[in-house]
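Work Package 3 (structural annotation) set out to generate three-dimensional models for the target panel prioritized at the project kickoff. During this period the team completed the workflow that converts sequence records into discrete structure tokens, so that structures can be stored uniformly alongside our sequence database. As a representative example, we reproduce one entry of 374 residues exactly as it appears in the project archive.
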Amino acid sequence: MRSWSISVGRLFNVDVRIHLTFLILPMFIYWTDYAAHQGAVYGSRDMALVGIILLAVAAHELGHMLAARRYGLVPKAVILLPLTGVALYDEARSERPNAALARTREIRLAIVGPLVNLAFAGLAAAVIGAMGRGIDLWSWPWLYARNLPRSLVWANLYIALLNLMPAYPLDGGRILRAFISRSIDLSSATRRAVSISTAIAMVLILAGLFSDSWLTMVGVIIFSAAQLEERALVFQSVLDNVRLEEVMLTDFATLSPADTLQDALDKAVHSLQDDFPVVRGSDMVGVISRQRILDALRAEGNGYVQAVMNKIFEVSLRNDSLGSAFRKLTARSSSIIPVVEEERLVGIVTLQNLMHSMTLLAETRKLQRDESES
């Protein structure tokens, strides 16, 4: 997510990010304007048209987010593309209904986005009509930088209609996946929906080369969104199926509650760890981070680890999934989870090593799947 998108702020405590494909849109609109008018371009109006499209996509995703909260899903981030958005949900806080209810929920959520855009298009058309400025809504081209009021109506109409295409992760594709998942498991249904989406994207890209270049743009956006969802699927598979014993660190440094903060910092300097379990005899009594050690030394001078360590912490079993560990880490905003067996510390999982392992395992799973399909 962070590699291909940039954060533009937070809305309702949701991280809003813009996918880098959105940066292609201004250049594309400028180029099509240049080609259509023999070198005459309207730079400020072109950028305003980009803003209109961005607002239409944002309204579409805002509708999804508000509806998602009503259905028990807690969105934590949304990535805006020029045609749609990809929402990421907080698995630890979201409700998990049975398969039938989940399918119904997905269909209802999918319908909300296009309805929001249709409502905005109708409202904009009504306002334009009431102003009586003679703006012909039915003149071609409908999406046109020199007629921004008309573009406001048609941008919302286009996004509503295009999102109903059966191309995952567009809304129509989500409805298609919900129907496919009635006969197969959700992961397989998602892969099938992504394959259909990729095929549709290729058809649109090729069709655009021989007709309207906007078709190529739509195809590229759908392909990019499908790849985002495919990577999310692979990561989810890793979270659900990999056990902590496969990725936990078994060679790690520990601290004693009787260690001074300066001694603890000296140990931290010679270790690659950022977080340390604190052990008294065979019992684990706390956790502490390198940053916490530094902060305490700066604020209070040298003291003992016992005074500043975190005595409330989560533990996991070696057979727990990566997903359960990740939810525990995010729920407490922690960065380390001790792994125990029969109340004995056998390993640790840190947020840093967890993210590193997830990335490598996801790439490995993807390579294995590609080899099996070839």
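The CA atoms of residues 143 and 189 lie 35 Å apart.
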